[in-house]
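Study both lines:
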Amino acid sequence: MPGIDDVRAQLERILSSPEFPSAGRAPAFLRYVVEETLAGRAGRIKGYSIAIEVFGRDQTFTQDDPVVRIEAGRLRRALERYYLVEGNRDAVRIDIPKGGYSPAFSWNANAVGTVQEPVAAHLELKPASRRWSARGVALAGATALVAACSYWIAGVSASRVTGAQPVVQSAGSSGRPLGDAFHGIPSVAVAPFTNLDGGSDAQLFSAGLTEELLTALPRFKEIKVFSGEASKTLAADVDTARVGPELGARYLLAGGVRASSGRLRVTARLLATANGEILWSRDYDEILAAKDPLSVQKDVARRVATAIAQPYGIMAQVDTANPSHTDSGRHECALRFYAYRFDPSVEAHAGTRDCLQTTLAQHPTNATAWAMLSIIHLDEARFNFNPKTGSRPPIEQALVAARRATQLDGNNTRGLQALMMALFFNRDVSEALRIGEQALGSNPNDTELIGELGTSMALAGQWRRGADLLDQAIALNPAGGGYYHGMRALAAYMLHDNETSVREITRANMQTFPLFHAVAAVIYAQAGMIDDARHQGEIFASMRPDVLANIDAELIAKNVQPDDRLRLMADLRKAGLPLPQEAADAVDTSDLQPR
């Protein structure tokens, strides 16, 4: 059977072919089902999950909607055409057998020098015999077994935990089990939430909440979430110490539900499987009579998923505090990236860029790493961090890296965020905001995305919408970096809300970040705090003297609107900065963006 590297290379070959549709839903559909299967989550590929995660449908989607079946038929025909024309001699075949949406991977019998007997890649085990259910394996002889050893498959037997069907992971052509590809990345299993009071309402809510969590958590691409099939193998009172060795999960999310007299209490807790330590727990109390039960269920799942799985959430905090739990490659780079985003500096920027470039040289198909590198390149331009001479303009590099990320994974939130940011600073504002809204639809709980979309909306002149998004990011991530608070302060300044602007700029407190002092200067100037404004203006001038002579060009590059630029320059003068008068006189209103 083809290994992971073989399948991924074939996937990229198909998606880049002119014989395969580049528009429509087929590329995202194919990438999703292939990657889910390679990640050992083939059992999770259902019409519902495809509709939610690929097509952006909401939780009201039902099987009465034929969109997934229609698109699956189109995808099958597109693959058939590809293999009839350009892909006839490709070494690997990817097919979507009728009757389901899980792909099958096989060696192409028409290709020269490949294994002639195809083996389907349905990653399933028979509970009793623990044999592969793929056709052809049961009849294979000694020769086939020798060949299979080069593509060996490591199964993790969850039946030793619960007596139920095992969870399976496949191996790549490198000979390593798939789990190794995720080494160091936070991995979490979700135990079914327990009905604590025995009532029927609590039983229904418990089951629904578990399903909602299994939908919300995988949207965070920086973590690994074991599938719903794996979740079903776990007893509600499973021994935490056995989940790690048996499933390979570093964390276990568990909890319980009580419902009585129209009131609901959900208790959620995150445990370390290594020692059973409770790392986080929280109670959620709701009055069912006041809300639709399904919306309550969805909202609780959203809050739990955001608290533990977002880039600045509990799992990331634990990994940062215990670096021995992480590997020295991709996950280390992710932690460094978010630490840099939390507190941007020239030094952290350089180290993060080097780490990501080294990682991508070894793992060029890592979509999230490409997205992070795109944002790092962008900061070379917008913050003048570590610019390299003799290379392509950093904004161009940012755009190339972001497009690479979205080509590899069209649903990767970080990739869509990076593309939004690169387009925005390439002055394609309307397309950037469109991509940003698309990304928000893919994961409405990602505070890194929400904060950056709020920033883009605000700078484009939609200050109210930007402020609302930034408030949401801060509420979901109260311990988030000062960047959120700094942008929220600027939005309040533009909305003439002096009380909020002063409070938020104080919370931002990004002393090593030059633009912090410029924003603080205009906020204090507008609020009549002239001494504070002049002090902040002096610091900014000492850190970025190059900006003062070209202030309008700097603001244009950030898509700040003409009227807003005039306000900012007027208050920078109040703060004592020696801006040339011709800068204000030269403000061009021809680039005014719709608000």
The first helix runs from residue 4 to 15. The longest strand covers residues 251-260. Residues 211 and 445 are 17 Å apart (CA to CA). The radius of gyration is 26 Å.
